[in-house]
Amino acid sequence: MSQQTEKSLPLQGLKVIEMGQLIAGPFASKLLGEFGAEVIKIEPPKVGDPLRKWRKLKDGTSLWWHVQSRNKRSVTLDLKAAEGQAIVRQLVAEADILIENFRPGTLEEWGLGWDELSKLNPRLIMLRISGYGQSGPYRDLPGFGVIGEAMGGLRHLSGHPGQPPVRVGISIGDSLSSLYGVIGVLLALQERRRSGLGQEIDVALYESVFAMMESLVPEYDAFGYVREPAGSALPGITPSNSYLCRDGAYVLIAGNGDSIYKRLMTLMGRQDLADDPRFAHNDGRAQHAELIDAAIGEWTSAMTATR
Questions:
Q1: Which residues of the chain does CATH 3.40.50.10540 include?
Q2: How far is CA 179 from CA 25, 26, 102, 116, 244, in A?
Q3: Architecture, CATH, for domain 3-210
Q4: What pTM was estimated for this model as a whole?
Q5: Quick count: other Cβ atoms within 10 Å of Cβ 240?
Q6: φ and ψ at 265, to 5 degrees?
Q7: pLDDT tens track for 62-99
């Protein structure tokens, strides 16, 4: 990265202390670091962040670790020891942002909670990511991304009807919480410009996932309708699905815009479906999703995925 590019990044000049491990906290600080913030990562002595040993290792270290830890500097501290806690206070005194994703109450046990650190540095912005938030009946329960995805509703929807829930393939619950956390940090920075004071930001994994559940709650409230797993389809939005080709591969087709749908049907040689007034808009197409999907599936089955 050139010196000029570094100076032009929007968060240049901000100092971030990362006290998190694995995904949610470190991903948030990674995003801030990519836009110019100085990130100092605190790791436990000898073993470091457990992410160092996750998934594929190259020369003894996880490639995921390298992705998650770019643009950061690292220091090892024993946060359970008085000396380590004293060093954290020194760092926090000069920091803009502190990010942590320990179990709620852990930092308080070490004398490093919000009440203590905000007195030390009133301009401090503290992002806290946990399974269920810093308060409430579940605050003391352990929470990982998979639990947040389940409680937030995502695992109920992912998969095929009548089969076990499946992952989306990445740690989406953690990453969503990180994104919400970064949004909170940016809002707090804006507020700090006005008031001069920092804020404590409380992000729960399950709430971050739940916020992505679109209209599930009002659909249930209005109609008693509970959305179920639908495989690769997008219920109520047609066409949007995966379709088998002659070579055994699948293609994903989303022709759910009205004009896009008409062009798709014309390309398929199904002008009858393009001109059918029932299918002019999505609400009509959604009522006949099986018919439209069958027509697209017949078309794709005659060609390969590349043609």
A1: 3-210
A2: 10, 11, 17, 26, 35
A3: 3-Layer(aba) Sandwich (3.40)
A4: 0.88
A5: 18
A6: -65, -35
A7: 999 999 999 999 999 999 999 999 999 999 999 999 99
